[in-house]
Amino acid sequence: SCWKAMSEDAIKSVTGAGAELSARKGLPMLRSPQHDTVQLCQQLEASLRQATWQHRKELGLLTVWDDRLCFLLAPALAAYELERYTGVSAGNEEFQSSIRKHVAEGHTFKGFPIQFIHCNESAMFTSCLRSSVCRDILSSEGDEVRLAVRVHIYPYPENTHAVWLMFAVHYRSIL
């Protein structure tokens, strides 16, 4: 085998009974994430959809969701987290291609990704509204306006997480 064997003592120091001993020696153990991130993502998306619907209602605008576009945003969020974590950008061409195939000829696409380190949907929505790009997306007018939102949570030890959120819209401009 090309693998170098690791000593059993080294393995025991980070797993099982040896881990407790390591923690007592001053090497802290990291706690694994405690949240069900899939369920939390679904709850955040539902809350953000409701907040978007209410915001657009106050502006006198209808809200129609494009579930397929929501699905297409997920790889972009994965690519953003990968780039943030590793510094390597990947998947941009594939994302752009999928959006081009989905958005009809003569329609405009706009997207707004943002990352948070909390799961407070109210604070997220308020923060997004501070951005002129996001405000433009959420108040888009035109023919066949379709909105999308996608949330993905990347869990890390000690109950920390990276929460990526993306709002998007596609529409045919009114000239």
Task: Please render the helix and strand layout as text.
Layout: H1 8-14, H2 16-24, H3 37-58, H4 67-86, H5 92-102, E1 107-116, H6 121-129, H7 132-138, E2 143-156, E3 160-172
Antiparallel strand pairs: 1-3, 2-3
Main pleated-sheet profile: 3 strands, antiparallel
What is the β-strand count?
A: 3
User: Order of helices and strands, N to C?
Assistant: HHHHHEHHEE
- Give the CA-based shape: elongated
N- and C-termini, Cα separation: 68 Å
Low-confidence stretches are: none
Structure notes:
- There is one protein chain.
- The protein is an alpha+beta fold and 175 residues long.
- Helices cover 49% and strands 21% of the residues.
- It contains 7 helices and 3 strands.
- It has a 3-stranded antiparallel sheet, with helices on both faces.
- A hairpin with a 3-residue loop joins strand 2 and strand 3 (160-172).
- It is elongated and about 70 Å long.
